[in-house]
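Quick note —
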Amino acid sequence: MRSQFEEGITLDRFIYETTQAHPESTGRFSTLLRQISLASRLVSARVNRAGLAGMLGTTGEVNVQGEFVQKLDEYANNTFKRALEHAGCVAAILSEEDEGPYFTPERFHSGRYIFAMDPLDGSSNIDVNASIGTIFAVFRRRSPEGSRADMGDILQSGNDIVAAGYVIYGSGTVMVLSTGAGVHGFTLDPSVGEFFLSHPDIRLSSDTRMYSVNEGYTATWTPEVQKWVADRKTLEAGWKQRYIGSLVADFHRNLIKGGVFLYPRSSANPKGKLRLMYEAFPLAFLVEAAGGRATNGHDRILDQTPGGLHDRTPLFIGNPDPVDEITALIRSAAQ
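Predicted structure written out below.
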């Protein structure tokens, strides 16, 4: 039997056939997805020749998160903005790299959607050629289209997400996307410059004996998290640990193979380290669409409403059983 990839179902065709099921569609959402695809292909090309293009290393600037800005961070951030701002589909672009929202310039139509992104997750791995990626979520604005968006449009609950995804730039470039009904992966064929459906209807594997966590921070975790990880390391438990240090890469492997990713709060980061809007929200949306769970150790991630653009959170995400187990341990310890 031939695969979907061999049959040549492109992302563009997939978008067309999906939106045909919604006769009320105006085409703005399709345009948004196509522009995301365009920006992803541009970033992928630059990542693949970063050394030759002089894109390795930092710019010398520090972003709002207090992190040194990599040259590729800056390129990815600007590329997605330029691809989306003029197309008439977004009202504002929210980026981990920017202190405030980037509103659609007045010369362009202020569209229906709010786009939130981590333009280049794992950028500390750029210089060692490890997998990195773009993570994004899409919200539908609440105020009238055509007017300038406001903070009520921007600070929405995770339950208001209408689409989310990520693009992983590794041995190949893969876009994983969900609009709520299933999760689908598309692999970029660089010879023709198109994404082809390669992973239809992704569901979390039932094999959950894989965990991903930075054990270098073990001493800073709460006792219940320390115990859960220690219990997984016994021979009797039969678990394995895999950790890349790039959230999008660790999540992608667990999504395909089954497992759980942990980034607990610590004594150094009592509110957690990962960004709620740019990292936790999109991946939680994806994992739930694939049959998994995502919590902050107490509550469902998508039930949260950010108080600011750069709110942080702990994150436990992956197969339901281990996420439920560690969440129950943390809740019990807090009582």
